[in-house]
Amino acid sequence: MARTKDFDEDEVLEKAMNLFWLKGYNGTSMQDLVDGLGISRSSLYDTYVDKHTLFLRSLEHYKEHTAGKMGKIIQNTPSAREKIRRMLEYIISELVRDKEHKGCFLVNAGVEMASQDKEVSTMLCENDRQVEGYFYDIIKHGQESGEIANKQDARVLAQFILNNVKGVRVTARSTADRRVFNDIISLTLSVLN
């Protein structure tokens, strides 16, 4: 008979995500995880196999949370231009509220590990395609309705906006000045004219 876990896996995953996000993969030791998660080393290994698997699960957890928030914005906002504005504002508000200036967990993981870790690289590429796809669909629909100018290819605009999002997420590691980010949003949206 399988043993019942004496901890909430979602809660543990949230704690692990925050530890990795703050310290990075290489900066987080197994002892940090045992101490920070409040579970025994054997429970950690039984549930997550190893540190790398736990890291990947943490990245997936973060990705799902962010995609869910963006999906709600897309669903609940009628205007294409306003969807993009609200998505950018959501991203920036998350970054500005973070007192530790951690930036984006996915971008941080990419900078730290993507060149050496195929699984991390694959996950980040999939996430980029998903977010770019959100922007592409919104822009394409906006161009078809006449709300967004047709001067640029929708795919190129989506890639441009995604690149700005990633840049903002790196910038947030060193500043929380809302004015800087508001200027970036305004300039980014201006390419849709």
TrEMBL record:
Residues 29-48 bind DNA. InterPro entries: Homeodomain-like_sf, HTH_TetR, Tet_transcr_reg_TetR-rel_C_sf, TetR_C. Keywords: DNA-binding, Transcription, Transcription regulation. Residues 6-66 form the HTH tetR-type domain. GO terms for molecular function: DNA binding. Pfam families: TetR_C_13, TetR_N. Gene3D superfamilies: Homeodomain-like, Tetracycline Repressor, domain 2. It comes from the Bacteria. The keyword Transcription regulation applies. SUPFAM superfamilies: Homeodomain-like (SSF46689), Tetracyclin repressor-like, C-terminal domain (SSF48498). This is TetR/AcrR family transcriptional regulator. It comes from Mucilaginibacter ginsenosidivorans. The lineage of its organism: Bacteria, Pseudomonadati, Bacteroidota, Sphingobacteriia, Sphingobacteriales.
